[in-house]
Amino acid sequence: MALELAKTAENKIADFFERDDALSRLGRLHSHTLGVVEDVLKAPRPQEATHNVLDLAVQKVVQKLSWKLMTEAHATPSSVGIPALLDLCIAGVTSKFLINSTPYKVLEDLMEGQTIGTCEKVWELLESRKEKLTTPDFIAEKGRTTKASLCLLRMCNALLRRLSKTHNSVFCGKILVFLSFTFALSERSAVNLTGKANVTNVTVFEDEDAFDLAEATDAAKASEIVPGLEIDDDPSADVGPIDYNLYRTFWDLQSFFREHQMATQSAENWEKFFTELNVVLAAFEGNAFSPDDLERSRDLSGGPIHSADATMHEPESDSSTNSAEQGSQEHFFQPKYLTNSRLFRLQLRDPILRECMLTQFLIVFNDLARAKPPAGSTTPKAKFADLTERVVALLKQTPSDGEGFNEMVSNVLERERNWVKWKQEKCPGYEKYPSAADKEGSAPKQVVKRARRQLTSPLLEQILSESSKPSQILEKIKGKERASEVPLTAYTDRFKEAWDPENGMEEEYWPDKDEMVCWRTMRAVMKASVDHLGLAVEGTGALVKGVLGIGANDAIKKEQQKDDKKPDREVAKDHSSGIKRERSDSLKRTQNGNEPPVKRERMGRGRIRDDDIEDGEA
């Protein structure tokens, strides 16, 4: 009966998962299935049984979509409807219709049956919905394990095992970044608690017979060189003698790097580890870097190191396209070095390989510092301190930036020690709060009383108490250096000083050339002598001359000189014409009805007599 329910649910989900009302149809399907489970199957936990039936139905639908995606030409996850099914599963979990691991189970089933290229496209669907898939409905906040979190870890670990660290390093990085985003910092799944090592990374090197044969072949080729033929200098010519013991010891150390705990398994391994370390360090110390080595190191560090396989399999027709996209898609990786004995002389002088070896030494020392030496060993654990000093000295001498690289490695190892210690202590809270004893022992803080602000001041009380004039109040409250009104004479004196020829001031420095001085002078004239503002149209200089009376006195003198030169007859004519003009003006005003004609005539005669008196006195 349960299989029939799952088959029915599979057909219905396959029919409506791409429709707009898919969630409501899923809700009705959940209610129907729950009723059948309760009434017919009589399950002890009907809700859990219903979730299992619907989860099985979704897996069957995903199986069909995965087959369609793999067999149909030009099929994509979007074309077969995977995004719609994934969104329906997320909404179903939020509405309590499905179990919380269903969306991750959909992705896991898809990636198990698809190629790496298709898995990258499916992973993009996961990243675009990470905000929904990492809510408390799926991943618990406090590190509690859920079915969804276990399914996610299982899917990511399976993907990482399939991916190549060199060819798919970007995809590996995306997976690790998503795990860091999803799980809390206190999640213990990020630590290798059991201490398992990657024992599958085996380094194979030549035996003694192959080594001797290669040396003999190289010696025979060197003897066949034609005399007088110019050849390039051999970079390995100045390297000391190389024997099989040094070659074997150099590459045999990789077994300890692969599995650190092998050194503590027996006293023989412990002593062998220290012996081989001393041999390799002595070889490094005896082969200093030459200028050619430094130049080669700069050339290698100046550009990216690409995979040889990627270059070999690159199609020629797409070389221009790939070269254009290379700048944005470059990724770097550390290759596994060749163990050919003919390269060993060069490898001893290779700065990059030496840097890698010395870094491995420091990592091993950091791990074995917490281990106990095996019983029966003669080399003390304190020997690690001397070896560390030798390794650090060699690392600082390694080009191109040995000092900076050594500092970076030291910081990383220090953080690693703190990280492992925190994980081993079951991730305690790292926010430190004062304990009760610290609170009791600390001196009580003195309570600082805030001074009450007075709403009044003595000056305000004095002003309010006395009945003084407003002008007196303003005089009391204004500041000592408060700006006051500048008198007009202060500006006119500046003009007089500038116009005085004895001062010898150049015209370009006169105050009437300064717009601000002109503007302030006009404001002062407006307040003190408004009757001269008519001269402002001629400029500030004419206005100041009018205020000072410089131009008016000259005009009066000229008029007086003209009057003195006139004969008496012309003066009499002027007086008579003036009298006639005044009489005609008075008659006109009389006709207009303003004043009586007699009165106006008398007033005119009175003015004439006054003028005659003034002329006579003059």
Automatic annotation (TrEMBL):
<feature type="region of interest" description="Disordered">
    <location>
        <begin position="557"/>
        <end position="618"/>
    </location>
</feature>
<dbReference type="GO" id="GO:0006406">
    <property type="term" value="P:mRNA export from nucleus"/>
</dbReference>
<dbReference type="Pfam" id="PF11957">
    <property type="entry name" value="efThoc1"/>
</dbReference>
<feature type="compositionally biased region" description="Polar residues">
    <location>
        <begin position="318"/>
        <end position="328"/>
    </location>
</feature>
<feature type="region of interest" description="Disordered">
    <location>
        <begin position="293"/>
        <end position="328"/>
    </location>
</feature>
<dbReference type="InterPro" id="IPR021861">
    <property type="entry name" value="THO_THOC1"/>
</dbReference>
<feature type="compositionally biased region" description="Basic and acidic residues">
    <location>
        <begin position="597"/>
        <end position="610"/>
    </location>
</feature>
<protein>
    <recommendedName>
        <fullName>THO complex subunit 1</fullName>
    </recommendedName>
</protein>
<dbReference type="GO" id="GO:0000445">
    <property type="term" value="C:THO complex part of transcription export complex"/>
</dbReference>
<feature type="compositionally biased region" description="Basic and acidic residues">
    <location>
        <begin position="557"/>
        <end position="588"/>
    </location>
</feature>
